[in-house]
Write a structure and sequence with these properties.
This protein is an alpha/beta fold and about 375 residues long. It has 2 domains: about 5-125 and about 320-335, Rossmann fold (3-Layer(aba) Sandwich); about 125-300 and about 340-360, 2-Layer Sandwich (Dihydrodipicolinate Reductase, domain 2), CATH 3.30.360.10. It is built from 12 helices and 15 strands. The strands form 2 sheets. The protein has a 9-stranded mixed β-sheet, with helices on one face. The chain has a 6-stranded parallel β-sheet with strand order 3-2-1-4-5-6, sandwiched between helices. The longest helix is centred in the last third of the chain and has 20 residues, at about 335-355.
Length: about 375
């Protein structure tokens, strides 16, 4: 079996999580890292091994033509430009979320990719959290009945520090609803099997980063919000986000309710934020309407996989599926550019709604 050679563009926190998970796969290696920041580039090179080539410029990496696939994990506002250059190659691409910071940029990338043979995968890794996959399977089996309501609660830690503090400002991230919550808008659309038509959000920047200043600028990213989303098939969804609630046992709870039952996927946060520093198992819960009984099921995940990242194993399982596609050389990714576009479109609408107090119609 021919080894698959990866190039990592953007080798900060998330780029290095991708590298740790790629290292768990058989028959693959990271042969190149690219980052203009010296510290991040050297860290990534050390993580990948002494034979890994390091680049400060992605054009030089592409020109070297030493990779079979690229992983893009640069800051959000760089995605659109970097993706345009990567799309001009004939290599598979995994682009970290969000696809871009605006829906207009996403649409432009979709046009640029038309006719391209090599696959492009948008990294919506929350789909691949084992408890979420268990929930997806139960929904598909009809255990809830017809999904009518979907709620997602994320109670978590504040945004971490990143190089250049790029994640402190809407202009560079697209806003919290795009940067963070595109995952949840993607899950809503996936689990409900329908496209969103209407968004209303209420939120604020009330607690986190208020004592920080960067060149005289105070961070403007939202740290808490409620978002409601109406779907074309009549279903409704709601997001509750709080980024100053890391004391919660469950970081995410994803619930789907139909006429038969409510189904919950309960996901703990990463070990480094737990009080004892230990990994915790997730759970899947069925609250059956007819019997009025609750059934709880532990969803176990290999601890080596959990410790390779902060996303409850999802980065590994996503990469395993992406690798299958890379080896095939063609095919349709499970997470497409269109999926990336929809997640940004809803996030963009939620940001606008927070600031204008308007209901945003997406039709």
């Amino acid at each position: 079996m021919k080894p698959i050679r990866y190039g990592i563009i953007g080798s900060g926190m998330m780029g290095q999580e991708h590298m740790r998970n790629i290292a768990l796969l058989d028959g693959v290696s990271v042969v190149a890292v690219c980052d203009p920041d010296d510290a991040m580039r050297l860290q990534a090179q050390a993580l990948a091994g002494p034979d890994t080539q390091a680049f400060t410029d992605h054009h030089a990496l592409i020109a070297a033509d030493i990779c079979d696939a690229y992983v893009l994990a640069a800051p959000n506002d760089l995605h659109a430009g970097l993706m345009r250059d990567l799309l001009a190659t004939d290599k598979p691409i995994l682009c970290e979320k969000p696809l871009a910071t605006t829906s207009a940029e996403c649409r432009a990338l979709m046009r640029a990719a038309e006719g391209r043979r090599a696959p492009v995968w948008v990294a919506m890794e929350y789909r691949y959290m084992p408890p979420v996959e268990r929930l997806r399977a139960a929904v598909a089996e009809g255990q809830a009945g017809t999904p009518r309501l979907l709620s997602i609660r994320e109670n978590r830690f504040p945004f971490l520090h990143k190089v250049g503090d790029w994640n402190r400002f809407n202009a560079r991230t697209g806003g919290t609803m795009v940067e963070k919550c595109c995952h949840f808008f993607d899950l809503m659309r996936l689990l409900l099997g329908s496209d969103p038509i209407r968004v209303y959000a209420s939120g604020g920047a009330d607690v986190n980063h208020r004592d920080e200043s960067y060149g005289g600028r105070i961070p403007d990213i939202v740290d808490n919000a409620f978002v409601t989303v109406d779907f074309e098939n009549g279903a409704r969804a709601m997001l509750e986000l709080c980024m100053f609630a890391e004391g919660a046992h469950w970081q995410e709870v994803v619930s789907v309710t139909g006429e038969k039952a409510r189904l919950d996927a309960c996901v703990p946060g990463p070990a480094r934020f737990s009080p004892d520093g230990q990994e915790r198992h997730s759970e899947f819960v069925i609250s059956d309407r007819a019997s009025k009984r609750e059934t709880r099921e532990v969803v176990a995940v290999d601890e080596h996989i959990l410790r390779a990242g902060d996303h409850h194993g999802s980065t590994y399982f996503q990469h395993a599926k992406f690798l299958e596609l890379v080896r095939a050389g063609t095919g349709v990714p499970e997470v497409t550019l269109a999926d990336g576009y929809w997640s940004v479109l809803v996030g963009e609408a939620a940001e606008r709604s927070i600031r204008t107090h308007e209901v945003i119609d997406l039709r």
